[in-house]
Amino acid sequence: MRLRAFEAKDLPELLRLDARCFPPLISYSRAELQYFVRHPRSTTTIAESAGQVAGFCVVDWKLESGRKIGHFITIDVAPELRRNGLGRRLMETGEAKLAAMGCVAITLEVAANNPGAQAFYERLGYHRTGWIPGYYADGTNGLVMRKALDPAD
Asked: Residues 79, 83, 87, CA angle at the centre, nearest 5°?
């Protein structure tokens, strides 16, 4: 498995993978995903195996009270490749990139009805900080999780 930076030619394959990973109304449209992967503050990491995209993550950051806070926009792993450490590797790579940019913490949103993903994030050191009613387009609530990178955060 090789990790590499996003290239414009990857977009169609990322869209196909995102549609396999998430149900309609939660998976991204072409315009949404294109916006996220091309945004100047975002970084996309591709996991590639035998020339195929096996997974990817998109991270960005924002200023909050004058400090950089990282954000996982999405992490996608092909269903048949899950539970083999690829998701953890993508998360650790995204976290390292955000730490290198000076982020003091990282946030993410996860579906409130997805306990498996919540447990995965908790094992990586994320804790629940709140929820967003109707966060997803299908009406599913979003759970907000956060991980401190700076011990003072």
From this structure: 80
